User: What shape does this take?
Amino acid sequence: MQLAGTRRTPRRWVMRAFTAFAAAVVGLAFLIPMWWSFVNSLRPGDETFSYLNPLSWQTFFTLTPTFENYAALFDTDLARAIGNSLFISLVTVIVGLAICATAAFGLAAFRFRGRGLMFSVIILSFLIPFDAIAIPLADMFRDWNLQNTFFGLILPGLGNGMAIFLLRTFFLAIPEELVEAARLDGLGWWGVFRRIYLPLSVPALIGAGLMLFLFQWQAYVWPLLMGTDRDHIVGPVALSNLQGQFAVDYGVLFAASMILILIPLAIILGFQRYFIQSVSTTGIK
Assistant: This one.
C-alpha cells in the first residue's frame, strides 16, 4: 500500500505543476494586453505604436511615464459618464436583485402549472443577444417618452434571465426540511424567503449582483440609443467619443480605458471569493 501511494505521488506532483503552469500561461495571456494598455496610457499618444515593430523591452515598459493623458480626461465628459455608469449599475444591482431573487424564489418554492414553461422562457431570454432586440425596444421606449432618462437606461437590465437562473438553481439546493419546519412554526412565505432563503444564499446573491453590474457597466448599444444628451452619457459611449473624426489621441484613449477597466476589476476582485463559491455550490443538494 505504501509503495502504491509512493508511486502516485510523482504523478500527482506533475499534474499539479502542469495545472499551475497552464494557469500561469492563461493568466499572462490576459495580463499582457492590459499591461501594454496601461504602459501606453503613460506615454504621449504619438509614441503608442513606436515600439511594436520590432518587439523589445520598451514595448512593455517606459522610463519616462507621464500622467498628462489622465489629466486631459478632466476636459472631457468621462467623469460625468463614469458617475452615470456607477449610478445606473448600482441601482440595477439593488432593484434587479430584488426582482430576480423574488422571481427565482417563486420558481423554486412553488409548484404551479406552467412553471417549467415559464422557466424555459427565462432561459431563452438570456440566450438571445440583447443587441438583437435593442432597436425595436428603443422604438418602444421612445413612444413611452423614456429616451434620455435614467429610468429608460436602467429598466432593461432589471430582469436578468441569467441571474434568475443562478438564484433559482441555488434556491433548489436549500433543504426542504428547513422550509417545512418554518411553515409549521407559523412563518409565512415572505418570512421563509426573507429569513431562510436570502441568508443562506448570500454567495449566489453576490454572484447575481456582479452579473447585473457588469451587464450595465459594459453596455454600449442601449445607452447609445437611449442616452443621447450629455446628462445621460455613460462610460463606454464617452470612451468612443474620444476618437476624433480625423485624429485619435491613443494616450488619452488608453487612459480612459484603464479607468473603465479598473473600477469593475476592483469590484470583481473584492467579491471574487463569494462569486466562486456561488458558482461552485450551485446545483449541489
Remarks:
- Residues 1-6 have pLDDT under 50 and may be disordered.
- The two ends are 34 Å apart (CA to CA).
